[in-house]
């Protein structure tokens, strides 16, 4: 009788231990699944590379660098510079409806640049969210505060700026496109403040490789005498379901009466979601 009791106790103890191990393993799997996405669609509420809004407990980050060639013509005096910049963008999904953004730019300026200081020239913090509804589209909106330690263009006084955005993205067959308005207190190359109207179009060319075009114009300065606009071409290759590399070429131009400027940027970035 005692042997039967002992054997029963051992068997029950083993079952309890096995159940405990399974429960611990399941809990660990759930924890890992909550912080590591298996694909971009699991991590991001948006589809295009123009927007990046992570889901709750998911993260998106992008790091890259570009070379910037500037050509200014002010009062018939030409100035040419060649600068390098590094940038980092990070977004974390706090809830299903809110993502927190952080980013910074680091510039290595040419000795002839309008602002000669090398170092961080922008630090930004803000948030964005999505909603469905108006015209049945997927909308993104947000606001950010940025600090410019080196000031803007030819000025050297540090400054805080506010940026806003509201727009949408939509899928048409295999392509994606969208538009947005982006008001900001940041100065343009020649003008004060900006109210930019932007758009993008992306289409897959071959498996895991997308081509896209973006463009924008400052509606606050869109006359014969004053204007500022930009265009960007890019290609993005997905290494796997969660990481990608992008090459881009961006051209920005501005005019203010007899003053003109053009900035050409060519760069590479790596992005990942988890």
List the helices and strands and how they pair.
Elements: H1 2-35, H2 40-43, E1 59-74, E2 77-95, E3 98-108, E4 119-132, E5 138-148, E6 159-172, E7 175-184, E8 194-206, E9 209-222, E10 226-238, E11 243-256, E12 259-273
Antiparallel strand pairs: 1-2, 1-12, 2-3, 3-4, 4-5, 5-6, 6-7, 7-8, 8-9, 9-10, 10-11, 11-12
Describe the overall structure.
The chain is 14% helix and 60% strand. The chain has helices at residues 2-35, 40-43, and strands at 59-74, 77-95, 98-108, 119-132, 138-148, 159-172, 175-184, 194-206, 209-222, 226-238, 243-256, 259-273. The protein has a twelve-stranded antiparallel beta barrel. The longest helix is centred in the first third of the chain and has 34 residues, at 2-35. It is globular and about 55 Å long. Residues 1-32 have low confidence and may be disordered.
Give a nutshell description of this structure.
The protein has helices at 2-35, 40-43; strands at residues 59-74, 77-95, 98-108, 119-132, 138-148, 159-172, 175-184, 194-206, 209-222, 226-238, 243-256, 259-273. The radius of gyration is 25 Å and the shape is globular. The model is unreliable at 1-32 (pLDDT under 50).
Q: What's the arrangement of strands in the largest beta sheet?
A: 1-2-3-4-5-6-7-8-9-10-11-12
Give the count of helical stretches: 2
Stretches where pLDDT is under 50 for at least 5 consecutive residues are 1-32
Beta-strand content estimate: over 45%
How far is the first residue's CA from the last residue's CA? 57 Å
What is the SS-derived class?
mainly beta
- Mean pLDDT equals 86
């Amino acid at each position: 009788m005692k042997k039967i009791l002992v054997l029963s106790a051992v068997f029950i103890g083993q079952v309890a231990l096995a159940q405990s191990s399974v429960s611990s393993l399941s809990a660990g799997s759930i924890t890992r699944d909550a912080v590591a996405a298996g694909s971009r669609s699991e991590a991001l509420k948006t589809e295009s590379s123009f927007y990046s809004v992570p889901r709750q407990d998911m993260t998106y980050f992008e790091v890259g660098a570009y070379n910037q060639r500037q050509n200014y013509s002010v009062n018939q005096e030409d100035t040419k510079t060649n600068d390098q910049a590094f940038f980092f963008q990070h977004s974390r999904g706090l809830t299903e409806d809110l993502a927190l953004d952080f980013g910074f730019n680091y510039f290595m300026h040419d000795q002839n640049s309008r602002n000669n200081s090398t170092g961080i020239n922008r630090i930004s913090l803000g948030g964005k969210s999505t909603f469905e509804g108006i015209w049945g589209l997927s909308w993104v909106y947000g606001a950010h505060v940025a600090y410019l330690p080196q000031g803007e263009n030819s000025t050297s006084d540090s400054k805080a700026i506010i940026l806003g955005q509201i727009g949408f993205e939509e899928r048409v067959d295999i392509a994606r496109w969208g538009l947005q308005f982006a008001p900001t207190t940041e100065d343009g190359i020649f003008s004060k403040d900006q109210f930019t109207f932007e758009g993008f179009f992306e289409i897959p060319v071959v498996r895991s490789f997308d081509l896209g075009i973006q463009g924008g114009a400052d509606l606050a300065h869109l006359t014969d005498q004053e204007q500022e606009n930009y265009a960007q071409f890019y290609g993005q290759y997905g290494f796997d379901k969660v990481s990608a590399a992008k090459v881009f070429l961006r051209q920005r131009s501005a005019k203010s009466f007899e003053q003109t400027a053009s900035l050409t940027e060519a760069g590479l970035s790596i992005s990942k979601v988890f």
